[in-house]
Specification:
Elements: H1 4-10, E1 42-45, E2 51-53, H2 57-64, E3 68-77, E4 79-80, E5 105-114, E6 119-123, H3 130-141, H4 145-148, E7 160-161, E8 193-196, E9 202-204, H5 217-225, E10 229-232, E11 245-247, E12 252-255, H6 259-264, H7 280-286, H8 291-297, H9 321-330, H10 334-342, H11 346-352, H12 361-373, E13 382-387, E14 390-395, H13 405-411, H14 426-440, E15 455-462, E16 468-475, E17 478-480, H15 490-505, E18 519-521, H16 522-530, E19 533-540, E20 545-555, E21 561-566, E22 569-572, E23 576-579, E24 583-585, E25 589-591, H17 625-633, H18 638-647, H19 653-663, H20 683-691, H21 696-705, H22 710-719, E26 729-732, E27 751-761, E28 769-776, E29 779-784, E30 787-790, E31 799-806
Parallel strand pairs: 4-13, 7-12, 17-21, 18-24
Antiparallel strand pairs: 1-2, 1-3, 3-5, 5-6, 8-9, 8-10, 10-11, 11-12, 13-14, 15-16, 15-20, 16-26, 19-20, 21-31, 22-23, 25-27, 27-28, 27-31, 28-29, 29-30
Helix pairs in contact: 9-14, 10-12, 11-12, 12-13, 17-18, 18-19, 20-21, 21-22
Length: 809
Amino acid sequence: MLDPMELLRSNLSRVRIPEPTNRIYKQECCISFDTPRSEGGLFVDMNTFLAFGKDCVGWNYEKTGNPVYLHIKQAKVLAPEDRPLKKPTLMAIGVDGGFDNNEPEYEETHSIVLLPDYVTLPFPSVELPEKVRLAVDSILMAEGAEKKEQLAAWTADKKQTSVYAVNLQQIDNGIIVPSSGWKCSKCDKRENLWLNLTDGTILCGRKNWDGTGGNNHAIEHYKATGYPLAVKLGTITADLEGADVFSYPEDDSVLDPLLAQHLAFFGIDFSSLQKTEMTTAERELDQNTNFDWNRIQESGQEVEPIFGPGYTGLVNLGNSCYMAATMQVVFSTHSFYSGYYKNQSLKTAFEKAPADPTVDLNMQLTKLAHGLLSGKYSVPVTEEKDQTNAITPTTNSKQDGIPPRMFKAVIAASHPEFSSMRQQDALEFFLHFLDQVERAHGGKPEIDPARSFKFGIEDRILCSSGKVAYNRRLDYILSLNIPLHEATNKEELAAFQKLKAEKISEGKDVSNDEIVRPRVPLEACLASFSSPEEIQDFYSTALKAKTTAVKSAGLTSFPDYLVLHMRKFVMEAGWVPKKLDVYIDVPDIIDISHMRSKGLQHEEELLPESVPGEEEEPSKPVADESIVTQLVSMGFNHLHCQKAAINTSNAGVEEAMNWLLSHMDDPDIDAPISQGGQVVVDQSKVDMLLSFGFQEEIARAALKASGGDIEKATDWIFNNPGASVSTDMDATTSETIPAAADAGLPDGGGRYRLIGIVSHIGTSTLCGHYVAHIFKDGRWVIFNDAKVGASVNPPKDMGYLYFFERLNS
C-alpha cells in the first residue's frame, strides 16, 4: 500500500488552486444540510470546490473520481453560564444592535482526506506539497459561495441623506417650539407628533390600518404646502443620528446632516431633550407585541415543541418567511412528499443532476424534502455550559432548523425579486414555484406533482340576445373576494363603530381588546365567486353591437389540493393599498360540488364566431398636432413627439417634453404607434402601479388590458391574481369545447378537508411576517420559521391562503 504522502502526490493532477471567479462551497453540503458542525464534518472537493457531508462524499467520488478533499470540522467552545443578552435596538439579526442570537463559538480544524479509503493527512503541515498548501489556503481565505448568495443580517436599508436637507428653506414666522407639552395643531393628539422643519408646524402622523396612530394631519400639511421634511418629536436627543426624520417626497426615513441647525431655527436645544417616542424602526419592533402578531404566532401560549420526521423548521434567511411558510405546506401534500422524498433518494437525485448540483431544481427540491421530512435535523439543541470547569449538557426545547439557501438561489434564478432580501407575497411565490416545477417536468405531466393543484375554470357569458359563449382557463388557486356586507356580526360592528367615533372625538385610541372585526363565512366568499356579474360594453357577435352581458363562473375539474386565496388587500381612495381587517369563518370540511360547471346545455345557443373586422375598430390614439408641431420645431423627431403627446394624454407641451426627455432611450421609441386599440403604456402609470407593490410586467399587461386607465388596471390585477403564471387559455364559442385544456388534470368529488393555513401579519403582502399552520397526525402544528410546535389555537379565521385536500368518497 502506498504511503499517504505518496498517494497524495500521485493525485496532485486532481487538485486545483481556486481562481477568484470560482464559487467555493465550504459551509453546507450540496446534497444535504450537513455542515462543518455536523458529526462527520464537511468535505470540500479540491477539484470542483463543492462541499459534501460524510454520507454523501462517497457518491461524489463514485460520480467524478475526484479523490482529494479538504475536511473541515467545527467543535463548540464552551460558553460561560452568565453570558448576558443584549436588548435589540435595530430590526436586524446577527449585527451590532440587532437581536442577539446568543451564537456559541466554534473551533475549526482541517485535514486532507483521500478517498476511497479516507486516508487522512494533517493540515497545516510543511510536508504537504506546495500546490495543496496553496489550494487549501485559498479555499479557507475565500468567502464561501453560500455567504455571497445571502445577506447575513435582516435589517432595514441604511438611511440615505435627503436631497432636500442641505438647501432646505425655513420660514421665519416667529415660532419657538417648547421642550415638552406638544399637541397637534389640528386635533388633540399628543403622541406620534411631527415637527415640519420648514414652518415649525406640529402635526400628528399617519393613521394605521387598524384605526390607531394619528389623523394624517402631517402628511396632509405636506400635500397642501410641499414642505418636504419633518422630524418626530420625542425621538430627538443629544445623539441626533437617532432622530426620526421623514422625507415626504422621498417617502422614506432619511438623514438630515443639518438637523441641529434646522432645530435651532425654532429654538430647540437638542442636547436637553430626552427620548420619549419610538422611532419608526422601533415601532416596527413593537408591532411584535400587538394582537395580530400574538394571535397568529400564538405568543403567550404554552406551545409544546415537536421533533421528528416532518417537523423540521426552516431558518429565516432574512425576510424569507413567505417561502418557509409556503414550502412547509407544500411538502405536507402527498404529491410533493412522494415526488421528492418517498420515491426519490438523495443519491438518485445527485446522480441525475448536472456537474453542479447547486443549480439543479430537482436536486435542491429533493435536498429540501429530505431535510424537512427525514427528521435528521429535527432534534432538540443540546447546549454545553461551563460551570466551574464541569461540563453540563442541557437539552434545549428548540431546534436549529435548516437554512434553505441553495433552494432559494435556484428558485429565484428566474425571478429577481425572490433573490432579494425583501419580503415578498406568499401567493406570488407559490404560483412562481409551481410554474417552475411544471416547467421542470415538461413533457412528463404524469409525474408532475404541481398538477395536483391545477384545475380548470369555465366562464359562461350570457348575451342580452339570449345566446351564450364559454371561455376556459387553467389555474392553481381560487382567488376569492370578501363580501363584507355578508358579515354575521353586524350589530356588534355597529356598536364598535359608535364606540370608535366617541373615542376619536375624545382624542383617545381604541384598544386591541375593544376592536370588533367583521366575520364573513367562507361560504359567502365562495358564493361571490360563482354569482353572476354584469359586463358592460360587451360586443355581441349576434347583435353586432355592444351590449350588457352576464358572466358566471364554475370549475371544470376539482384538484387533489384546492388553494383558496383571500383577497384581503384592496385599493383605497388615492391608490393606497389597504388590508381588510376581517375574520373569515372557515369550516374544517367544505363541499364545492355545486360549483362544477355544467358546460354547454342542449337548449343553449352559442354566439356566432366573430368575423375579422366585424366589430368597430377602436379608434387609434391621436396626438394633438399643435403640441407635436411645437416639439418638432425644437428639433425633436416627429414620431417621438407624437408618442410624447399621446402618452401624456395631450396635456400640454411641457408635459410632453418631460416625457420625451425621460424616454429618449426606450428600446421601442422608434417603433410605429400601435394600431387597433393597442395602448402605448405611459411609464408614469406603470411607476404608480409599481409603487403599490405590483410587478412591472403585470402592471404593463393591466394597463394595456384597461386602455391605460389606472383604476381599471388595478381592478384587472386583483381580478387576475394568476396573471404572473403562464396559464393555458382556451376560449371558444363552438359547440365542441376542446378538452385539451383539462386533459390529464386530477378530478374527483367536491368535498375537501382543511389541511393548511398560511397567515399574514402586517399592512401589506410585501412587509410583515408569514406563519404556517398544518394539520398533521391528527393535530394542528405551527411552523413559524425554525420554531415547530403543537398549535393551541390555530388562527383559522385569519388565513391569507387556505389549503384543502380532497376527500375521497
